[in-house]
Amino acid sequence: MKIGKVSEKNKSRFYSHHYHPSRNQSNLSKSILADPTMSIHNLDDDTVGDWIRMNTKRVDLIIDASLGLFALNLIEAILHALYKPRYEGNKNLRDDI
User: Where are the alpha helices (DSSP H) in 1-97?
Assistant: First the structure.
């Protein structure tokens, strides 16, 4: 559904950011609530986080910081190309929608 990166210094983003639509301007829960195809689940700000936890699997890849930012960006780009996450990137630029 979503692929992202976070530094070890931002624990709140890593642990809770995507489960609460009010946390910032762009996160998984907001994307789900804005998706008309997800309306069948009757989700709202209070229930979307639990829905994510119960209906998705989270995979965390821990990348050694010594590899540097370019390696991290490359790994993220490869994952985007392989998995084409539904809630990533500018929809106007995507050819898979």
Answer: 11-15, 28-34, 48-55, 69-83
Please state whether the predicted TM-score (pTM) of the whole model is above 0.85. no
- Per-residue pLDDT tens for 15-61? 677 788 887 777 889 999 999 999 999 999 999 999 999 999 988 88
First to last CA, the chain: 13
Q: What is the dihedral of CA 8, 10, 11, 12, to 10 degrees?
A: -160
How buried is 33 (Cβ within 10 angstroms: 0-12 exposed, 13-18 middle, 19+ buried)? middle
Q: Nearest-CA neighbor of 30 among 16, 50, 44, 42?
A: 44
Tokens of 95: 């050819």
